[in-house]
Amino acid sequence: MKHYSVGILGGSGFVGSQIAYECAANGYSVRVFTRSRERCKHLLVVPGLSLVETNIFDQDQLNTQLRGIDAVINLVGILNERQHNGKGFRKAHVELPQRIIDACLFNGVQRVLHMSALNADAITGPSHYLRTKGTAETILHTTSPEKLQVTSFRPSVIFGPNDSFFNRFASLLKAMPVAFPLACPDARFSPVYVGDVARRFVQALDDETTINQRYDLCGPKEYSLIELVRYTAEQLEIKRHIIGLPDFFSHLQAAVFEWFPGKPFSLDNYNSLKIDSTCQQNSCEITSIENIVPFYIGSKGIQKKYDTYRKTARR
Ligand SMILES: NC(=O)c1ccc[n+]([C@@H]2O[C@H](COP(=O)([O-])OP(=O)(O)OC[C@H]3O[C@@H](n4cnc5c(N)ncnc54)[C@H](OP(=O)(O)O)[C@@H]3O)[C@@H](O)[C@H]2O)c1
Questions:
Q1: Ligand 1: distance of its center to the CA of 282 in Å?
Q2: Burial of 214 from C-beta contacts in 10 A (0-12 / 13-18 / 19+)
Q3: Which residues are CB-contacts of 240 (< 8 A; sequence separation ≥ 6)?
Q4: pLDDT band at residue 46 using 50, 70 and 90 as cut-offs
């Protein structure tokens, strides 16, 4: 293995932290860029990792920070924007990759791994999120391959401890005592494990066959959203009447919730759910939710697994 230094943008988040750990564990020297060191103390203890507070949207600062780096991993992404016009999505998903390309060309950094999303498409994407993710892929993959060696990853929803999918539904289910009105209940997903995603990224760093490729990443099984929410309730061992909303009420829920603080569900999220997040050609498919989710959703889940383990161990 080459002894690379890797710069990670978005390396403090849920997926980015896992990729940062995996890079460090594989002997790479890692530089994680963040807006706030204070918020990512969990990374300070990782050997071979330095945490740099900087403004990655400032071209001069980005040019300086990528000096001496061999490969860049970009994970910066948002699910919601403050504005309601797509400007925030364009800034995070399109302007930033453009700045990354400029900084890479400025410093002679050739290797770029980019996090996109399943169904990202500049033209046909049904939401700002998916269109801007698609535009970023187009910009990155049409930059001269002699200058930039890009690999993009397009995952379905990603799960693991600290995810914002199962954990969010778990909090919502606990907060609603009797019934749970669920928008877009029939939307389909193939949840993929964060550890598998991180391994795919790190393997690609040194694998020339991945250059200029785009990989769809899904887990081994498909589920509807209502099945995943029912599964979450089962893990929590709580009884809730989960009511799948028809399309009109799903749209209405999004139109109302997008004005709530933190936008628990937005019209852009609703639009993203119009296409199933499942793979035709899957490049991941290893760990299933049943092997991981019970260990982090609900302490009873962990206890139950432990009790079963002890019983079988005694036999
Ligand atoms: N999680 C999923 O299910 C999923 C599925 C498909 C695709 N993805 C994609 O995977 C990537 C990572 O997702 P995640 O779930 O790990 O997200 P996350 O936990 O929210 O992390 C996002 C990261 O991006 C950085 N970031 C966000 N907005 C920024 C801004 N305006 N300026 C600078 N940095 C900013 C944050 O860094 P600081 O706060 O430290 O500055 C943070 O490290 C995203 O591109 C997302 O679209 C995720």
A1: 22
A2: middle
A3: 173, 176, 178, 179, 180, 233
A4: very high
Which residue's alpha carbon is nearest to atom 1 within ligand 1? Answer: 158
Q: For residue 12, which atom of ligand 1 is closest to its CA?
A: 43
Report whether pLDDT(134) > 90.
Answer: yes
Domains of the chain plus CATH, in order, are 5-160+191-217 (3.40.50.720)
CA 165 to ligand 1: nearest atom:
3
Residue listed under structure tokens 């079963």: 308
- The closest residue, in CA terms, to atom 31 on ligand 1 is 92
State residue 315's pLDDT score. 45
In whole angstroms, give the CA distance from residue 78 to residue 16.
13
Q: Tell which one of 40, 52, 75, 118 to mutate to probe ligand 1, the residue whose CB is within 8 A of the most ligand atoms.
A: 75
CA of 305 to the centre of ligand 1 (A): 31
Q: In terms of pTM, does the model score above 0.85?
A: yes
Segment 197-214 shows an average pLDDT of 96
pLDDT at 144: 80
For ligand 1, the distance from its centroid to the CA atom of residue 12, given in whole angstroms, is 8
Within the chain, residue ranges assigned H as helices are 14-25, 59-65, 87-90, 96-107, 128-141, 166-175, 194-205, 225-236, 247-257, 267-272, 289-292, 299-314
Closest-CA residue to 303 (of 230, 228, 237, 233):
237
Give the pLDDT confidence of 77-89 residue by residue, as tens digits: 999 998 888 999 9
Ligand 1, CB within 6 Å, residue ranges = 10, 12-16, 34-35, 39-40, 56, 75-78, 92, 115, 117, 155, 157-158, 165
Between the CA of 10 and the centroid of ligand 1 the distance, in Å, is 5
- With pLDDT > 70 as the criterion, what percentage of the chain qualifies? 94
Q: What is the pLDDT of residues 274-302, one digit of tens each?
A: 999 999 887 777 899 999 999 999 765 55
